[in-house]
Structure to design on (141 residues):
């Protein structure tokens, strides 16, 4: 089982990043849920990951794993902060939202079970883990 994961880690990271990108577009363009400031920052880090990993898969190159991992790590940090605001661990005053939708607004995500900020955190976490697995496998080969 671990060999299958190692062999397909880059594809898994790409699939998760693509699903996150398409999911965010679905929420904003189809469901008309306005993204908050932190959602925009997370999109800024997620969307390039899709392109970088697609190019890495196409070129069979491991050189692009580091930039994708850095972007995912930055997005992960933003997602952690967003979740701390969303679940009211940090006060509303700590939110960077000056206008528009508040970063702690309760929009339910996938099937109204998992909140959108938590979906982003899980997505970035899976991408980082998959890229680390890929990098360690590639490094050892």
């Amino acid at each position: 089982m671990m060999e299958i994961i190692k062999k397909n880690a880059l594809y898994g990271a790409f699939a998760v990043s693509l699903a996150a990108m398409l999911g965010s577009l679905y929420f904003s363009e189809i469901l008309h849920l306005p993204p908050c400031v932190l959602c925009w920052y997370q999109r800024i880090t997620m969307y390039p990951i899709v392109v970088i990993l697609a190019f890495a898969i196409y070129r069979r190159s491991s050189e692009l794993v580091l930039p994708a991992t850095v972007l995912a790590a930055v997005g992960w940090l933003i997602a952690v902060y967003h979740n701390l605001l969303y679940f009211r661990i940090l006060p509303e005053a700590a939110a960077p939202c000056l206008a528009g939708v508040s970063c702690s607004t309760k929009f339910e995500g996938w099937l109204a079970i998992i909140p959108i900020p938590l979906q982003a955190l899980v997505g970035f976490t899976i991408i980082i883990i998959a890229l680390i697995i890929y990098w360690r496998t590639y490094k050892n080969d």
About this structure: The chain has a mean pLDDT of 88. Residues 2-30 form the longest helix (29 residues).
